[in-house]
Amino acid sequence: MIFILDHLDDIEALAPALKGRTDRSRIVAAGHSMGGHTASLLLGASFTDSDSGEVHSFHEPRITTGLLLASSGNGGADLSDFAYQNLTFFRHPSFAEMKTKTLVVLGDKDDSQYLTKRGADWRADSYTHSPGPKDLLTLVGGEHWLGGISGYDAVETTDESPERVAVVQRMTVAWLRGALGDGDAWGEACEALEGLKGLATVQSK
């Protein structure tokens, strides 16, 4: 993504229909699962190399807003034995400097035992352990694919639910609109969600 941002002028030159239409003050990094982990690094999270002790940060200040769906959490003793041994970049993360405005989305049944010894709350660490402004959307009954965001009938979806996908779609779009300065769409969506008990909850800081 940094490469893309570095070459926006070149991209506009190759695609004249885009020229003058890219708003470089409103750039979002978004991702699901490992894509969320990658996006969190662009938003200010970092990790410490367990061998050298070197801290790696890929924070990109041109990115003003973040959306993390079912992203990874803390390392150390929170990791499963498999993850600690094989996914060394998960061992020592830090969200302390992830100051970019971000919405974190997770399912409260996302029990990723192959990655963590904790439960679904592990997926909330990027919200819990980072400074605000942040919002947290927790989907009741949601598993890792959040109802099927890659296609609710896709083979990897374990919690097939078009209704849950619709909640993810509408709430994330509303949040992005609000975060990018397009009125109070997020506030309105949260009010609507309160009238739909049992689908999701929202926290903010």
From TrEMBL:
Gene3D superfamilies reported in the protein's UniProt record: alpha/beta hydrolase
UniProt name for this protein: Uncharacterized protein
